[in-house]
Amino acid sequence: MKRYLPYLLAGTLFGFTLVKAEAASWYRIMEMFYFDAFHMYGILFSAILTASVGVWFMRRFVGHASLEGSPMEIPLKEKGRYKFILGGLIFGLGWGVIGLCPGPLFSLIGMGSIGALAALIGALMGTWFYGLLRNHLPD
Amino acid sequence: MEAFVHLLQSPWPWYVAGPVIGLMVPLMIWIGSRSFGISSNLRHLCAISQPKVISVEFFKYNWREHSWSLVFALGAVLGGFLAGVVFANPDPVQLSVEFLTRLSNWNIPIGEGFLPPVLFGAYWQSIVIMYLGGLLVGFGTRYANGCTSGHAITGLSTMQAQSLLAVLGIFAGGLIAAHFITPDLIGSIQP
């Protein structure tokens, strides 16, 4: 159980921040897609910048023991082309309507939102449909 | 004490929230060489709940190996509860004048807090829209193997070209939906 505590704390900080940043607010997401405010772009750009510096810093510890004890490495994504563009496009089409990406989806469940619950059930069904159809989709 | 509670209730500016979210990437590497991301939990939840009779190959794996990820998602739920219920901001979101004007053109009442009730309330049309939107989000994030956290933040900060493709796709889709679908769709809901 103790092994999972760091993940619980990290997740709690993440969920807390998404709500305090208002990144979990439909209003903020629409404001972003209409280029009406800098707020969301500020969050995304400063997050990417901070993460880049953090990863650059962590690279010198590759091979050293992580908190869990395993040797540290920088995880990589799998290869492909169309799945990233098409998958991203499909996800974006949903995001541009319901204003929720998966992170805020989880944190809004914690806020007791009925809309988020409906979206979560939809997202689970969508994930399942992908699993069903994946061999017929371009990579 | 009152000042402290007020501080916990107030929203964070982008230059505080962005770096905290960005720190998740090196933090997860430090904890256990994990890739920061949350959408894969949708797959794990399907793997947990899939009955043996339907058995889709994609969900046949030992999800217990990903328990750490599910615990992270549980934390995100807990964090949402703390930030949005326990220390909820009593004031509505401080939106730009341009966007407030747009909302009033869409007939969405201004100053209603965190989420628009017309879309997030218990109306059957809203629930259907949220469900269908969720369907696209679930399908798309699994097809692209990541969402905003996994691609835009983790992928771009570790300079992975695939993630740039995904981010371009996500943003294109979001722009199309937000400009050509959402205004009419919201207007059509009759609470």
Write down the domain tally of chain B: 1
- What amount of the residues of chain B lies in strands? under 5%
Rg calc of chain A? 18 Å
Distance from N terminus to C terminus of chain A (CA atoms, Å) equals 38 Å
Estimated structural class of chain A:
mainly alpha
- The radius of gyration computed from the alpha-carbon positions of chain B, rounded to a whole number of angstroms, is 19 Å
Mean pLDDT of chain B: 94
Helical content of chain B stands at 55-70%
- Give the largest interface pair and sizes: A-B, 118 and 123 residues
**Strand portion of chain A, in percent?**
under 5%
Description:
The complex is a heterodimer of chains A (about 140) and B (about 190). Chain A is mainly α. Chain A is built from 6 helices and no strands. In chain A, α1 (about 5-20) crosses α5, α2 (about 25-35) packs across α4 (about 80-100) and α5 (about 100-110) packs antiparallel against α6. Chain B has about 190 residues and is mostly helical. Helix content of chain B is about 65%, strand content about 0%. Chain B has helices at about 1-10, 15-30, 40-50, 65-85, 95-105, 115-120, 125-145, 150-155, 160-180, 180-190. In chain B, α8 (about 150-155) crosses α9 (about 160-180). The longest helix of chain B has 20 residues, at about 65-85. Chain B starts with a helix and ends with a helix. The model of chain B has no long low-confidence stretch (mean pLDDT about 95). Classes of the chains: A mainly alpha (about 140), B mainly alpha (about 190). Chains A and B meet through α1, α2, α3, α4 and α5 of A and α2, α3, α4, α5 and α7 of B.
List the helices and strands and how they pair.
The complex is a heterodimer of chains A (139) and B (191).
Chain A: H1 5-20, H2 26-33, H3 39-58, H4 82-98, H5 102-110, H6 114-133
Helix pairs in contact in A: 1-5, 2-4, 5-6
Chain B: H1 2-9, H2 14-32, H3 40-49, H4 67-86, H5 97-105, H6 117-120, H7 124-143, H8 148-157, H9 161-180, H10 182-188
